[in-house]
Design a protein that fits this description.
76% helix; mainly alpha
């Protein structure tokens, strides 16, 4: 009887782990919602943030997503950089070329996709 109880507990733990960590699982959904909220808070339009958040969560680690938080405006900076130099300065703060590359490609894809939708 004890063995059956252990098997049931192991099955429940495995099931909860699968629901949490699978693609589209609870952890992924929470992370995607947080990334979308952070993008919107930093001036990205809602539709574009929704598009970008899924791609960023799929392609970057949690650590890389945290590094992207360094793009946020610091004291004395405007939310959205007004010059190329200010944008580059923020990207250098990230100190993760792969994360910046994924962010730039994702923003480009989502922006072009949004533009094409509006043209149709």
């Amino acid at each position: 009887m004890r063995f059956v109880g252990v098997l049931i507990a192991a099955a429940i733990i495995a099931g909860l782990g699968w629901l949490t960590f699978r693609d589209g699982g609870w952890l992924n959904q929470v992370t995607e919602e947080r990334v979308e909220a952070a993008l919107v808070a930093n001036g990205v339009p809602v539709d574009m943030a929704r598009c970008m958040s899924g791609n960023l969560v799929d392609q970057l680690s949690i650590n890389q997503l945290r590094k992207l938080e360094r793009l946020q405006a610091e004291e004395g900076e405007v939310i959205v950089p007004l010059s190329v130099e200010a944008a580059i300065k923020r990207m250098q703060r990230v100190d993760d070329p792969e994360a910046v590359r994924v962010l730039a490609l994702t923003a480009t894809r989502c922006g072009v996709g949004s533009l094409l939708e509006r043209l149709n």
